[in-house]
Amino acid sequence: MVSDSDAASRIAWWRDAKFGLFLHWGVYSIPGRGEWVQWNEQIPVDEYAKLAQQFKPTSFDPEAWAAVAKDAGMKYTVLTARHHDGFALFDDPGSSFTAMKAAAHRDFVADYVAAVRKAGLHVGLYYSPLDWRYPGFFFPDLYKASADELREQYHRQLHELASHYGKLDIVWFDGGGADWLGFGGVEFKGGWHARPKGQDYTGLFSWKDEEAVADLRQSQPAILVNDRTDAPADFRSREGDGAMGDFDNRHPWELCTTITEGAWGYQPNAEVKSFDQIIKLLVGAVGHDGNLLLNVGPRPDGQIEPAQAQRLKEVGDWLKIYGQSIYATRGGPYMPGDFGVSTYHDRTIYLHILNAPNKILKLPALSAQITGCSVLTGGKVNCAQTVAGVDVSLTDNPSAVDTIVAISISEPASSIRPIRTKDEASAVAPVAKKE
Ligand code: GLC
After folding, report:
1. Which is the closest atom of ligand 1 to the Cα of 175?
2. Is the CB of 108 within 6 Å of ligand 1?
3. How is domain 7-325 classified at the architecture level of CATH?
4. C-alpha 148 chain-centroid distance
5. Does 85 contact ligand 1 (Cβ within 6 A)?
6. Rounded to whole angstroms, how far apart are CA atoms 372 and 26?
């Protein structure tokens, strides 16, 4: 992780933002079988490349994307500028596989950045150093020239993205670092083979991630990058609904997941997650002191599926009412437990009761004095404080997806040491600092 003196102030907006929109969109959206279609179906590179000649989105409207994100209460967006298939949504004179050279003849990244910025949201780009078209990626020591060419592409494209689109707020890396390097790396039997899990790359090749990211930071001093390269990162990425993991208020982190079941890239008729599922993901992430980056895979024509936009709007409507318990909060001081999670802002603690079987919730003692207590989601509550603990008694059984109890206290909640509500190994700073 980064350790420079500006790290905390650089990431402050992001910590307050909590909720972002991830967009996986590229030529893989055309077959509609997910962004891994080339790999999964072992489509030969030349054949896959033909998709570019069909890539001419008729409904690409980045202002509409930004509006979807805004209506969802999201504060930032991250678009796949280039995924593992190598197709660049931007203008890279050094590559033949770009949106400018595809049927569209358009720099989608330029239009996207302008629209998102205009909407007042923070702008992020996803970039994959990994590119399946290069055998050097799989066997860097065997195909040294190809690996060198791939690294040259990575550094060059990153430099181009950093130089030609104005201020960027996030570069979201995926598929870089020694973790991925030499993806096949071990044996080659006429096809692509993944290196067995846990078997580290031991060869001589390096992405030189530190150099690439230092160059990025040079022209974009406020940029935030995640931890999927070997360069120092501003925040950590956790991936998938099952990866919520432990409470961690020491390292900024973000859970990314999809709004649908299945892949990140477009799949027709993919089932959209329910409102309750998404609220639980959002509240869960924020209560564990992280962010949520929720993904949509727009259709090949550029449009976000109306059913997905509708679901996002429902989440935004909820946030309009209860956003005070989410935005600009930090997770805690009650650490996640069977009941749900808690968040705080200044002298207010928000209990997010996600699974309370009955009306009384018994919590461990609180060092600050309780000065008030109310239920934001309806009904009444009594909070009885003793040296032994806090008994939260609701008049009604919690029925909302998230029953939110606001507890006012006599001192800033940031001065309270995080309180365990169950046994769990978490990364906890003694006093959660506003970073
Ligand atoms: C993965 C996948 C990918 C997706 C990403 C999002 O690493 O390779 O397709 O873009 O995760 O987190």
Report:
1. 7
2. no
3. Alpha-Beta Barrel (3.20)
4. 30
5. no
6. 51
In the CATH scheme, what is the code of domain 332-411? 2.60.40
Q: Is the CB of 22 under 6 A from ligand 1?
A: no
Q: pLDDT tens digits, residue range 225-280?
A: 999 999 999 999 999 999 999 999 999 999 999 999 999 999 999 999 999 999 99
Euclidean distance between the first and the last CA atom of the chain, given in angstroms as a whole number = 14
Q: Which residue ranges make up each domain of the chain?
A: 7-325, 332-411
Amino acid at 154: Y
Closest-lying ligand 1 atom to the alpha carbon of residue 256? 12
CA distance 331 to 251: 12
Sign of CA dihedral 118, 67, 54, 25: positive
* Cut 0.85: pTM above it: yes
C-alpha torsion angle, residues 175, 41, 26, 105 (rounded to 10) = 120
Burial 411-433 (b: 16+ CB within 10 A, else e): eebbebebbebeeeebebeeebe
Calpha distance 351→342 (Å, rounded):
4
Residue type (1 letter), 134 = Y
